[in-house]
Amino acid sequence: MSTTDIFILQQIIDKSKKIVFFGGAGVSTESGIPDFRSVDGLYNQQWKYPPEQIISRSFFYQNTPEFYRFYRAKLLPQGIKPNAAHYKLAELEAAGKLLAVVTQNIDGLHQLAGSKTVYELHGSTLRNYCLDCHAFYDEKIIIESENTPDKLPHCPKCGGLIKPDVVLYEEGLDQRVIEGAVKAIKAADTLIIGGTSLTVYPAAGLIDYFHGDNLILLNKSSTPQDRMANLVIHEPIGEVLSQISVN
Fold first, then answer.
1. In CATH, what number does 35-76+127-166 get?
2. Does 122 qualify as catalytic in the annotation?
3. Where is this protein found (predicted)?
4. Distance in angstroms (rounded) separating the CA atoms of residues 194 and 224
5. Most CB atoms closer than 10 Å: which of 2, 48, 174, 241?
């Protein structure tokens, strides 16, 4: 990447007071979590059923054991840690320059890195709830369910089936999360979009609410919004943000 691009990015961040970061799967690939649509992504891996079908609401109820076999194997990577991008965003928030992170990811790495205001559009694998009594549990109950007779996670309180608090295909986004994300994006003077192809709707449509001064695109491949941006850098987001200093 050019030193000129980093210089321009640093200048924009230095002048900004209300930054919002909108991110996707590319933010976590540098932590070892595969994305969905690249050559090595989940959607291009061989499985008994298409991954898009498995992570749907109807499949969850119709073939629950297979759903959890895939979910534990592919969506609950263990030992994963935040990368430079996660830590830099948390640093920007701590310095009072970043209003919020709006993420399409479900891995919880932003919070693990120290970010406080995070709008998780698609939920989180770290939260799971009983469909009957609505008690909440962390991801350990899903992981440990592999060792049970039926290999399904059941509520210790009532015996009900536990479902991940993630947005599956055929499910709508949480309205409160949407409202918080829209409010933050509307208030931003700089919107940094990173690690997303901006092809997943309705999440990608949220950036239409941005009317601030600077739109920055950090993504390894081009996006539909590249032509609208003040700055476009086609490099891994962690490598880019690690070169930024927070004043």
1. 3.30.1600.10
2. yes
3. Cytoplasm
4. 13
5. 241
